[in-house]
Design brief:
This protein has about 525 residues and is α/β, with parallel strands linked by helices. The protein is built from 25 helices and 15 strands. About 50% of the residues lie in helices and about 15% in strands. The strands form 3 sheets. It has a 7-stranded mixed beta sheet with strand order 9-11-12-13-10-14-15, sandwiched between helices. Helix 5 links the parallel strand 4 (about 90-95) and strand 5 (about 125-130). It is elongated and about 90 Å long. The structure holds adenosine-5'-diphosphate and magnesium ion (MG).
Length: about 525
């Protein structure tokens, strides 16, 4: 039997402890799991385990919290606690919980002391383990501390947890539990991506509610998971109802996506097709990149998970690695799924350049993402969009990471015609009653979003004037708008030049060349 991920993790930790790595830093929310891991390792190596917390100071693991200690314990002070570790001559693991607030920049005394501890205990049988959901790693300590991300629980751990809860509930004379065996596995799969304590709450809640573990619980757990994930603010289930009929132009891209509708099926796998990895949609703002992401997911009938990578870097820098791995696991647990990384360029601004410890975190997190991207086996299709290339790290664009890079340009004549028709029709007007060729000409240089805005503003004007939407009204709206492409001409030219040799066009080339001569000239400069 192959080793479970939990066993592998235990072995890895044990090896580090045996090799006398002085300070380990486990990034995790799951203190109880870390408690158990450490106790397990300690008993195998005949070591003691002590815990430290700001409220209790140092005490033997498992000792109940003692409110009177809150005032008296001499080891509550972080520096005093480290002194205690220094002078102790036991063979022991010291598990420091939530030590991260004392590792921020201005705690120079604690940081210095930690360096000294690191030096001093290298040749002892003592190990200092920090466990915290937040990674706070001062530069001074980078060489002394080994950071270990704790894996999210795997199926075996959820199975064990579920067993325990069912047993506990069964012992209660007021509850009868009926277990529908076929649901057991589905329940476990539905929990993937949660932490053990989150899963414990969800399992208990759904089982106790009706005394039955059945397929209803699968959807309840799924719903809970959506809640929890939404709260974390990283992934969002996006209920996509858009379809390709709403996307004007971009025929080559639509074709590519449509061809892969069945690529995630068992049939395709048996046929020998590898599951598509993902694509990057690069191009001018407002030209339908996000729209295509939504349309693709609903066409493929796969859940669309919007991954707010910018938020991840922005708000929770310290625990970003944890969050990244979590987002990936959640996506894999609902696979086949589309992982939509919108405006990835904004998130990765500063990954390649810039200094400081934030850049360090960002590039580690980015590394996690890239590694996953090249090694992933699960049918999670990554759909990244970007408006600019200057911030995009080259590693992301390297062949093999993604299937294709598509360049989404401003719509050509034919595409503007389509887009206008779509948006006029969407507003319940008959497109045949408008002089579309005239509008197409007036809308030269407009993005899809700007054309849509013109239709909307034309509608407003007509409404207030007590009239009806007309070609004339739309002409006025178009003439009043200065399209972004006029003010951002240089940026667009730069993007085109870059994409010219490196990306595939979302609009078929022949069509683009024939339809828009001026565009062709600009591309070939
Ligand atoms: N090719 C298009 N066809 C139809 N509508 C479009 C197109 N491009 C943009 N739009 C309209 O503009 C809106 C914004 O476009 P979006 O997809 O968010 O642009 P991007 O992600 O490329 O910046 C869309 O929701 C849609 O209403
Ligand atoms: Mg967008």
């Amino acid at each position: 039997m192959s080793k479970s991920r939990l066993q592998e993790q235990i072995l890895e930790l044990e090896t580090l402890i045996r090799a006398r790595y002085p300070i380990l830093y486990i990034v995790s929310w799951e203190e109880r799991k870390v408690d158990r891991l450490m106790s397990h390792i300690a008993s195998r190596r005949s070591k003691k385990v002590y815990t430290w917390s700001y409220t209790q100071g140092i005490q033997a693991i498992g000792a109940p919290p003692d409110p009177s200690k809150a005032k008296s314990s001499s080891t509550r002070d972080p520096a005093a606690a480290l002194d205690h570790v220094l002078v102790s001559n036991e063979s022991a693991i010291f598990l420091f919980k939530d030590f991260h607030p004392f590792l921020t920049k201005n705690n120079f005394a604690v940081i210095r002391k930690l360096r000294e501890v690191s030096q001093a205990i290298k040749n002892s049988y003592k190990t200092l383990v920090i466990v915290s959901p937040v990674l706070e790693l001062p530069v001074e300590l980078e060489k002394d501390i080994t950071v270990i991300p704790l894996e999210l629980p795997g199926p075996e751990e959820f199975a064990e947890l579920l067993e325990r809860i069912i047993r506990e509930v069964r012992d209660n004379p007021n509850v009868t539990v009926r277990v529908d065996e076929s649901s057991r596995e589905k329940v476990i799969k539905a929990a993937m991506g949660l932490t053990l304590s989150e899963a414990e709450n969800v399992f208990a809640k759904t089982i106790v509610a009706d005394g039955v573990l059945d397929s209803n619980d699968v959807s309840a757990i799924f719903a809970e998971k959506q809640q929890i994930i939404r709260k974390s603010g990283l992934l969002e289930y996006y209920d996509a109802s858009e379809d390709f009929g709403e996307v004007g132009g971009l025929e080559a891209l639509k074709d590519w996506l449509a061809k892969r509708a069945r690529a995630f099926s068992d049939e395709a796998e048996q046929f020998g097709l590898p599951a598509p990895k993902g694509i990057m949609l690069l191009g001018v703002q407002g030209c339908g990149k996000s729209l295509c992401a939504k349309a693709a997911a609903s066409y493929w009938k796969m859940p669309l998970l919007r991954f707010d990578i910018g938020k991840m870097f922005g708000s929770l820098v310290g625990s970003s690695e944890e969050n990244m791995r979590r987002a990936i696991q959640v996506a894999e647990s609902v696979a086949p799924a589309v992982l939509w990384v919108d405006e990835i360029d904004k998130a990765f601004a500063g990954v390649s350049g810039g200094g400081g410890s934030d850049a360090g975190t960002s590039s580690r997190v980015f590394g996690t993402f890239l590694t996953w991207l090249s090694e992933k086996q699960s049918p999670v299709f990554v759909l990244a969009t970007a408006n600019d290339i200057s911030n995009l790290p080259a590693e992301l664009l390297r062949k093999g990471r993604l299937d294709e890079i598509f360049f989404v340009d401003l719509p050509n004549d034919e595409e503007r015609h389509e887009i206008l028709r779509i948006h006029i029709t969407k507003r319940k007007r008959d497109a045949a009653k408008f002089d579309l060729p005239r509008l197409v000409k007036a809308g030269h240089g407009f993005s899809g979003a700007e054309l849509e805005q013109a239709v909307i503003s034309g509608l407003y004007d007509a409404f207030y004037a007590g009239g009806e939407l007309s070609t004339e009204g739309l002409m006025v709206a178009l003439e009043e708008t200065v399209p972004l492409s006029r003010t951002m001409q240089e940026d667009i030219d730069r993007l085109r030049a870059w994409a010219g040799t490196r990306a595939r066009r979302a609009t078929p080339v022949a069509e683009a060349d024939m339809a828009d001569e001026s565009l062709k000239r600009r591309i070939e400069f």
